[in-house]
Amino acid sequence: MKPPTRPARPAGPPAEQPVDAAASFPQRLANVAMALCLAVMALAVFVNVVLRYGFGSGIAASEELSRLLFVWMVFIGAAAAYPLGQHMAFTSLLMLTRRRPLLFAVLSLLVRGGVIAGAGLVAWGAWQQVLVGMGSRSVVLGYPTALLPLPAFLCCVAIALMAAWELLSRRPLDLGHGADVE
Fold it and tell me: What is each CA distance from 8 to 2, 5, 11, in whole angstroms?
């Protein structure tokens, strides 16, 4: 009797996962929002540098606007990366349990529960900061400072909802990170 052999993994990076039609519009919307944030940030910083070093003046709002857009861009990207499985994954333990369906299911439940709990805690903390920021305004632009922690709250709520949906629909964890086993 021969011992079971593992199928060979293809060399190179893992293949891109196809995105279904329902997820493609939100994904495109997130990509456009991130691109707009990056474009406005780059333009604001470039103009500010040219004005500061070329003409001895600058735009005071440039730095504050860039900081606000950077925060929004990061959290939009984090929320958009979750359904594609692009967050860091420590799959080495889960890879060992692939052939044990019950253990794999229990670990999947724990992983998704941990994601929901972690996202919930960050969302709760971000919401506390949103409430604190409602009463104050930024120094230069004058926007409510609640706009800085708001993307963290929205991102974590979105990730928690996606993880809860995956948990309730019993969607198995994606172990497509095989080329990058930690």
Answer: 17, 9, 9
The span from the CA of 17 to the CA of 25, in Å, is: 16
Distance, first Cα to last Cα, the chain: 32
Q: What domain count does the chain have?
A: 1
Rounded Cα–Cα distance for residues 120 and 92 (Å): 26
The set of long-range contacts for 24-29, using a CB threshold of 8 Å and a minimum separation of 24, is 26/80, 27/80, 27/83, 27/84
Residues paired with 137 in a beta bridge: 144
**Does residue 118 contact residue 176 with C-beta atoms inside 8 Å?**
no
How is residue 3 written in tokens?
Answer: 């011992």
Predicted model pTM? 0.77
Is the separation of the CB atoms in 126 and 156 below 8 Å?
A: yes
Q: Each residue of 58-94: pLDDT tens digit?
A: 888 888 999 999 999 999 999 998 888 777 766 777 7
Separation of alpha carbons 123 and 84, rounded Å: 21
Q: In which domain, by residue range, is 49 found?
A: 23-180
